[in-house]
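--- STAGE predict ---
source: upstream dedup step, 1 unique chain passed
mode: sequence only
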Amino acid sequence: MRDRVIAAIEEIRGNNFLSTMDEASVISVVVERLLSVMGWNIHNNEEVKHEHPVGSKAVDLCLKVSGASKVIIEAKRANENLFPHQKQLLEYSFIAGVPHAILTNGIEWWFFLPLKEGEWDQRRFYDADLLRMEPGLIAENFIELLSRENVTSGNVVKKAENLYESRPRGGVYALTGPSSDNLNRLQKIAKWASNKGIMLPNKGQEGNIRIRGKNKNQVALFRQEDGQIYIVLKESSYAGRAEERDALVKELKGLGLYPQSLNPYKIADGKMLTKKLYELDDEEIAELLEILEKHC
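--- STAGE serialize ---
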């Protein structure tokens, strides 16, 4: 099975349309492809239920064994930011009464134990990125967490619990390559911001790094849970108003962290950079911090 899962991942990675797929394509081309090589009969609605009713709504997929719901999967379009959709997924999980839930945009896969205590993101125990992680590692974990054999036998529960308990304190999901890089880089950025006197309090978001601008407002947020870097683009957050904000955007475009087509005047609050923290090399991080320091 491992070889088949690796082959499927490689096939998905090689799809030229992966980054632009809509939700339906993510389900049919990515999710169902992986489920099928892990033993699920995607054509049997009693096993892989599409649009599974959850109260007055429906979740994209529900994996069932002998009529019992075991796993729900909610899919989003490719490259959709998954963070805002966690709450909805776990609310579906409570209503459906399932112990295991997955949120994916086809590239990123977030696994949850919905019945655990804590905030939504604290119940996330494993992340995978199909484009940036080693396919063999993804395959091994996917088989343990999602194969029909392990879901049916209940072995998936033990694996999930082990991964959940192995998370570093503070909710950093350092179970895979990119997330472990996040921790090291966040520590360096926190030290830099502290030394410059531009780090804001976290407001209950432990591990995130908030950077203030010259107007004392937040201008940047480095998120530990997924490596996203959020830049505030409201004019009021900058002492120089639109001119300084526009200068910042121009420099970020020069680094390739925003597309040239981005118009900051059309952004209501802020926008994520096109690269996550673990995707930046040391030189790019140094240049990014130099740019932020200039505007903070």
